[in-house]
Amino acid sequence: MIAEPVRWGILGAARIADGAILPALKNSPTCLPWAVAARDADRARAMAERHSVPRSYGSYDALLADPDVEAIYIALPNHLHIEWARKAADAGKHVLIEKPAAMRADEFSALDRVDPALRIAEAFMVRHQPRWQHLRKLMQDRTYGAPLTFSSLLSFHMTKVDDFRQTPDMGGGAYYDLGCYTAMAARFVFGAEPLRAMALMERNTAGIDLFTSVILDFGARRQATFMVSLAQASSQSIEIVCERAFLTLPQAYVPSQTEPNLIIIDTSTDHARSETHAVEFPALDQYEAEVTNFARAVRGFDAPFYGIGDARANAAVADAVFASARSGGWADVKGH
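Predicted structure:
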C-alpha cells in the first residue's frame, strides 16, 4: 500500500476525463485527483466541482506550474498529446498520455532526454485488467503452446459531428481511435513486434478512415488480423489460436463492471466436439486498475508498466499501416 497517494492533474475537460479517469482516481487508494485544467476556466471549474477536485485552472500551463501536482493525465485531442507530454515532463511531472500517445513514431523524439526518473506511459487501460495479465502469462508460459493467430474486431457507430475524431489533422479516424488498441493487443499476445503490415482503408469525404482492415506479419508463422470501424455496430472481440487451444475474450476491450469477465479456452482437437472451460475474473473498473498501477510505479513499487519504448513501437505499427494503405502493398514496420 502507498503511504501517500499520488496527486494528479488532468489536462483537458474531455469525456474520458469526466466519465472515466476522474472517477477512477477518486476510487483508487493510490491516487488523489488534485487539479483540472481546460481552456475554458468555467468548464474546468464545473468539472472539478462535479468530482470534488480541490483546484481548477483556465490554462494548461497554470496547472503544470502547480507544485503540488505530481502526475498528469493528458486528455487532449490526439495531435496535442506529445507537445503537452513534453511540457509536463519539463515541469517535473510524471505523465500518462491518452492513446494514441502520438500520431507518428518520429514524434517521440520530442521526449528524448527527459528526466529518466519520470514515469511516462501510454494509457491503454485494457492491459491492466487481471484478465489480460493472466492471458499474457498463458502466452509467455506456452501453456497451450505458442500463439500463432490473433484476430480482433473493434467498432462502434460515431454520430457526433463535431467530435475531433472526425478531423484528420487532429488524429481522427478508426485506426487512431481503435486500431491502436488492436495493434497493441496483437503485440501484447505475441510478446513481439510485427515485421510488416498490409492494410485497406475506406475513407469518408473528410479524409478519415471509417473502416480499416489490417494484417500484421510477426514472422515464425504468426499472423494478426483485425478490423476497426467508426461506422458500424458495436463489436469488441479477441480470438487467439495457439498450438493446442483456441482462446476467446468476450467484451475484450470494455469489460463488464458488474459481471465476471472471462477467458474461454477450447482444447478440443476435433471440429465435431468442443472441450471448453472458462477462467473467470471479477468485475472491475479497468481505469482504476490503470491509474493504481501507474501510481504504484511512480512510488517505486512493482506494477505492470509500459513506457515510452512500448508507445513508440505501437506508433511504428501505425506508420506501417498507413503506408500500406497508401501504397496498396506490404509496408515494413520500421525498426524490424
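Summary: Residues 6-125+289-305 form a domain with the Rossmann fold fold (CATH 3.40.50.720).
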